[in-house]
Amino acid sequence: MENTTKVNDPKLTTREIEILQLIATGYSNTNIGTVLNISPRTVSAHRNNIRRKLHVNNIAGLVRYALLKNLIQ
Predict the structure, then answer these.
(1) What does the UniProt keyword field contain (predicted)?
(2) What are the helix (H) ranges across the chain?
């Protein structure tokens, strides 16, 4: 049984979704920055925004969200 509540379904930006997908597939901030042509510090800011919006404190939670939303396979 999946836990997909509509109450806590935050709106992520397109860029945040891109970054979440790369985080969930194992990319570091430096690697993500290289792929998206942005600085690792900008990636870190996006990562913090994603974690805040999702109320998640670790990578496992980000990966779980990405899997539940079919952002990664």
Answers:
(1) DNA-binding, Transcription, Transcription regulation
(2) 14-24, 29-36, 40-54, 59-68
What's the number of domains the chain is made of? 1
Q: Provide the CATH number for the domain around residue 43.
A: 1.10.10.10
What angle do the packed helices 59-68 and 40-54 form, to 10 degrees? 70
Phi first, then psi: give them for residue 58, nearest 5 degrees.
Answer: -150, 170
Q: What digits encode the pLDDT tens for the residues 28-59?
A: 999 999 999 999 999 999 999 999 999 999 99
Asked whether residue 3 is assigned to any structural domain, the reply reads: no
Radius of gyration of the chain (CA): 12
Assigned token pair, 37: 């042509």
**Taking the mean position of all CA atoms in its chain, how far away is CA 12?**
9
Overall residue count recorded for the chain in this entry: 73
SS3 assignment, position 69: coil
